[in-house]
Amino acid sequence: MVHFTPEEKAAVASLWVKVNVEVVGGESLARLLIVYPWTQRFFDSFGNLYSESAIMGNPKVKAHGRKVLNSFGNAIKHMDDLKGTFADLSELHCDKLHVDPENVRLLGNMILIVLASHFSKEFTPQMQAAWQKLTNAVASALAHKYH
Amino acid sequence: MPNGVNKGAVTAFWGKVKVDEVGAESLGRLLVVYPWTQRFFESFGDLSTAEAVFGNAKVKAHGKKVLDSFSEGLNHLDDLKGAFASLSELHCDKLHVDPENFKLLGNVLVVVLARHFGKEFTPELQAEFQKVVTGVANALAHRYH
């Protein structure tokens, strides 16, 4: 199980309160779809994903990005039991959505890049370390029920 | 060459990058975010805290050296494997660096560019740089045996 120190938890929480979930979530998902175009295959029903500007402006991408980042918000409240917290979502992503867990790790990396881009001062090396640990742990938790 | 890299966009953007600063910060962040990488730098002295890492002159100097090499690589996007052949042999035969760490450094570089340039580091630029850092990491791993 991943163990977060009190300092790591405090760092993550201190940045989280400043995060606009719709903006950061939408941008993170959009960047995933642009930088790793094969990920678009999971979003056939989203309509126009034919250009970077289409993806960035797509309302379904924004809405889904917000949904995904809200789920990270939930993770932040349960950093001591991520596997338990993500058990149902793990089964969903395996059994229904058929998402390769590697893509969850890539999305986590996109979240870091977007946070770095929006919060240049606050995104210290220690902040980056804490968030990298969190996103990797969430990716592991989401993969945990895969079979 | 990395698949369809927009060379013009990459080199135009790279012209704005302060290579010394970004190099030092990227290496420093690698050592803090992925602490096992410190094992390759035992001769650098104190790396025990983030403050120590970022105040360490050897980290700064080496970060600059690494990014100068990356910069030079940008002039050879058509033949990264050739451009990095000797460095690849060095990192395998003498330095014994697990090539996975090159990918990690590449990802840290992308985070640092996002931090410095904010909105200017558009998704399109991020996509181009991701291809480049992946290409450089692969080129550095190419001579491993």
UniProtKB/TrEMBL annotation, chain A:
Keywords on record: Heme, Iron, Metal-binding, Oxygen transport, Transport
Protein name as it appears in the record: Globin domain-containing protein
Gene3D superfamilies attached to this UniProt entry: Globins
Any one annotated GO CC term: blood microparticle
Pfam families reported in the protein's UniProt record: Globin (PF00042)
Annotated Globin domain residues: 3-147
Coiled-coil stretches: none
UniProt record, GO biological process: hydrogen peroxide catabolic process
Family indicated by similarity: Belongs to the globin family.
Organism of derivation: Moschus moschiferus (Siberian musk deer)
SUPFAM superfamilies linked to this entry: Globin-like (SSF46458)
PROSITE patterns linked: GLOBIN
InterPro entries linked: Globin, Globin-like_sf, Globin/Proto, Hemoglobin_b, Hemoglobin_oxygen_transport
A GO molecular function held by the record: peroxidase activity
UniProtKB/TrEMBL annotation, chain B:
GO molecular function, one term: peroxidase activity
Keyword tags: Heme, Iron, Metal-binding, Oxygen transport, Transport
GO biological process, one term: hydrogen peroxide catabolic process
Residues in Globin domain copies: 1-145
SUPFAM superfamilies: Globin-like
GO cellular component, one term: haptoglobin-hemoglobin complex
Listed InterPro entries: Globin, Globin-like_sf, Globin/Proto, Hemoglobin_b, Hemoglobin_oxygen_transport
Family, similarity comment: Belongs to the globin family.
Subunit and partners: Heterotetramer of two alpha chains and two beta chains.
Name the record gives this protein: Globin domain-containing protein
